[in-house]
Design goal:
Blueprint: E1 2-7, H1 12-23, E2 28-35, H2 39-49, E3 53-56, H3 59-66, E4 75-78, H4 79-88, E5 94-97, H5 105-113, E6 117-120, H6 124-140, E7 144-146, H7 149-158, E8 166-173, H8 191-194, H9 204-212, H10 214-227, E9 234-238, E10 244-250, E11 255-259, H11 265-273, H12 287-290, H13 304-315, H14 319-335, H15 343-354, H16 363-382
Parallel strand pairs: 1-2, 1-5, 2-3, 3-4, 5-6, 6-7, 8-9
Antiparallel strand pairs: 8-10, 10-11
Helix pairs in contact: 5-6, 6-10, 6-14, 7-10, 9-14, 10-13, 14-15, 14-16, 15-16
């Protein structure tokens, strides 16, 4: 029985994790859950899974939940301290990080420092501080188990192969909702249109990133750090069927691909159960119905966020952290209606042009650049 702390349990990934967990009651036990402020969903999860601990980031939401929680059955924790206490607990075997955005960096480092198994659904933490994170992982002789479908696919395709034998990694992308939309029509794209992804049902932030292709840019940086591969060897390829989740080409010309239906429960289950593979009642790929697999080059001019991510990858240092922070603010302001679709990459470009890169940053440097870039992005938008 693996005892799991699920951080970010009320989001789309967190809920999918619990769907997997309930199918394997003899394998997994969620002993801790955390949420930001969505206590309505959290309460349902508490009734269903009876965790020993819950942590709520928002203090007002925590007070509201406390009045209805039985402290003899479930202990309520609050804020960053609450997350730390969960991660440090000797009752937790694996930390599943489904917290979105840069907020996941602290808990991820805490989990590594406490020698926990880590299943990672968040990409922003690695984007911000990839070398620092992977250095700590190496010193602890741990392994980050990726939940992202593309990173999980790369992980499985590598199969323990020597990274020096890799010729290229092909990071697949569905192309988002505007793959066939002309560039001239993108300026007036609405929030509703952006949030209607053709393949995945995800949280708002990642759905916007998918529409701008910044999500693929963040995955490029994530893969570069997670697998120790230079950005020049990572190729983004548009694959609208989203059946091949990524591919690895080796120096002898062999290409290994991971294929499955588009369902996040598949990479989640593998990350939870690794190295064992558990059975699944999900439907497999029906090749007779599929018939065709299509591939296209990404349009870097139409989707400049992807080009910005490649530039941040080449620059290294604190550039990825600045990129990520500026993007977080831009997406947030877009969702509030304060920024149009085409202005998001413009804001990020301005922030990066004003950023003073620190080539070998400390954690304090990274956090400082994260704060600066968020403030700078807000200034650019207001200006």
């Amino acid at each position: 029985m693996k005892r799991i702390a699920l951080l970010g349990s009320t989001g789309s990934i967190g809920r999918s994790v619990l769907e997997v967990v309930k199918n394997f009651p003899d394998n997994f036990k969620p002993v801790a859950l955390s949420a930001n402020s969505n206590i309505a969903v959290l309460e349902e999860q508490i009734r269903r899974f009876h965790p020993l601990f819950v942590s709520v980031q928002d203090e007002r939401a925590a007070r509201d939940l406390k009045s209805r929680l039985d402290p003899k059955k479930t202990k309520l924790l609050v804020g960053e301290e609450g997350l730390s206490r969960i991660i440090e607990s000797n009752l937790v075997d694996q930390v599943v990080l489904a917290i979105s955005g840069s907020a996941a960096l602290g808990p991820l480092l805490k989990a590594i420092d406490n020698n926990k198994e880590v299943a990672l659904a968040n990409k922003e933490a690695l984007v911000m501080a990839g070398p620092l994170i992977m250095d700590r992982v190496g010193k602890k002789n741990l392994q980050i188990r990726p939940i992202d479908s593309e990173q999980s696919a790369i992980w499985q395709c590598l199969g323990g192969e020597n990274k020096d034998k890799i010729k290229a990694i092909y990071l697949t992308a569905s192309g988002g909702p505007f793959r066939k939309t002309s560039a001239s029509k993108l300026k007036n794209i609405t929030i509703k249109e952006v949030l209607k992804h053709p393949r995945w049902k995800m949280g708002k932030k990642i759905t916007v990133d998918s529409a701008t292709l910044m999500n693929k840019g963040l995955e490029l940086l994530e893969a570069m750090f997670l697998f120790g591969i230079e950005s020049e060897k990572i190729k983004v390829i548009i694959h609208p069927e989203a059946i091949i989740h990524s591919m690895v080409e080796f120096i002898d010309g062999v290409i290994i691909a991971q294929l499955s239906i588009t369902d996040m429960r598949i990479p989640i289950q593998y990350a939870l159960s690794y190295p064992e593979r558990l059975g699944s009642n999900l439907n497999g790929v029906d090749f007779y119905k599929l018939k065709n697999l299509n591939f296209e080059k990404p349009d870097f001019k139409k989707f400049p966020c992807l080009a910005l991510a490649y530039q941040a990858a080449r620059d290294g240092g604190t550039a990825p952290a600045a990129l990520n922070a500026a993007n977080e603010v831009s997406v947030d302001e877009f969702l509030k209606g304060n920024l149009d679709f085409l202005s998001m990459p413009k804001v990020i470009t301005k922030v990066l042009s004003r950023h003073r890169n620190i080539k070998k940053p400390s954690l304090d440097d990274i956090l400082s650049v994260d704060s600066w870039a968020k403030l700078e992005a807000s200034r650019v938008i207001k200006g």
